[in-house]
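#onboarding

Welcome to the new folks! Below is a worked example of what a typical request in this channel looks like: someone posts a single protein sequence, and someone else replies with the predicted structure as tokens. Don't worry about understanding the tokens yet, we'll cover that in week two.

Example request:
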Amino acid sequence: MTTGSLLAVDLVLAVLVAAGWLGGGAAAAVRRRPLALALAAVALLATLARAITITALARAGWWFVAEKVLVAAPLSLAAVAAAGPRWRSVAGDIRSVAVPLLFAGYATSGALFVTVLHGYPASVGAGLLTVAGVVTATAVSWRALGVRPPRVLSRVALVVAVGAVVTGTGLTVVPNATPVVPHDHAYRDERTTDEPTRRFTLTAGTATVSVSGRDVAAWAFNAQVPGPELTATVGDVVEVTLRNRDIGRGVTLHWHGYDVPNSQDGVPGVTQAAVRPGQEFVYRFRADQAGTYWYHTHAVSDVGVRMGLYGVLVVHPGPMVGLDATIPVHTLAGRPLPDARVEPVAAGTPVRLRLINTDSTTHRYALAGTAFRVAAIDGSDLRGPTSLVDTAVLIPAGGRYDLVFDAPETPAALFVDGRAVYSTGPVSAATGDWPVLDPLGYGAAAAVPWSRFDRTFTLVLDRGLDLHDLLPRYAHTVNGAADPDIPPQVVRLGDVVRFTIVNRSAIVHPWHLHGHHVLVLSRDRRPAAGSPLWLDSFDVRPGEVWEVAFRADNPGVWANHCHNLAHADAGMTMHLMYS
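Example response:
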């Protein structure tokens, strides 16, 4: 069982424990003896089962059990201790055990709320606030059932509540964070002064586009979705003029995966101001990285990208031979792009399919009818890729895979989530049971280029209640905080930096660091064993722990965020800053 599965099972058990004790207490209060006994038994068994799941999670890392060990376990023990001795009274009036059972329910519910609403890291304040709530609810129940509660209960509740306020908790209001962008750095122009050799103009505006024969409203570059494909050759100087016709919320251009100078990265409030209607901004950078990339707005990106403000950037190492096709996959107005296309190719023709996932969720790709190799991932060539057949690949949000093969004499087709998007003729779509390639074990291995790390950071991805500026939201958090209150990671030029990224939530987080590619060191403590993987987008699935590293060689202030853009908008955004 994976760590993600254990997290899900433990959550279900926690709900059963709380529901069992609360239901048992309610049944006892109305003198439903058999039901009260049955529900209490369920709660007790589920509590024992949780001891097993928490022990198993602890082996995966302290991140997964911190609040369970420090808050849930003591409260669960208190619950069992309070309810257990009272069973001697069951032979008399079952109502006499109602409050102890309810106390057990409040205690375990409080611990569950800490996991769901507070998450990682566990804090003294959260624990004290939970205890205060449990004691208060128990006192109220005592009075509601016509029993005078012990005076000590109200005193304990008061003391613990005051303690919670004094020590603070992750569930309280967080003051405005100090901006992470130094004033003298923001908007600094770092464009190359060389004369451009490739010039493009992109005009952002509202548009109506056709998807599968249906007209839908979109935001588009040059009135098309995706926007124009921008191509260059290594050594070119690329200049792109961005104009905003009528996108009221502003636009920018972020070159996803392309390690441009910081001022050209297109992040509003960090590297430039958003381009408002009637304004323009000129981007200029040298094309020194061959590979498959894409561009998209980073202004209100959750909405802008979803509405169609994206396109393809391809930088060729030199003259191309054969067929070179880009396939950006997107969902626009609930309809998949691109539309299926058939393109006959002569047998023996070298083919390169550049697969790009421009959505916020993972897609499954399957190339049927031919053997193929994965030549590159995220713009970086793989070392010693081997031939694959009847094998699917999963591409995370923002990620790119280049598949290469020689066109066979019989038809071949590319399927995305079971839908044919590109083919040279009719091919069976029966690819659903194919195994999925694990890129960490694909290709020829090579030694890690560093023997030590100058900076080490741990990012624990979770969910929690965020009360920033008195506007509550259920945020996607990093180390218990949400944007803009997540402290930046500060590095120095030349540092070798290691990130440990832990997902203790129930959903996938595709991680994306701007301005750098990271080398994958391990996943779930298992070292990467294939070709060196230099990625800019990778899925951290529930319960997974990734270790990645990079050399800090591109100065500036860089966004570091989940590329499920709704998650980024809901708090899972931070910054990497050079001192």
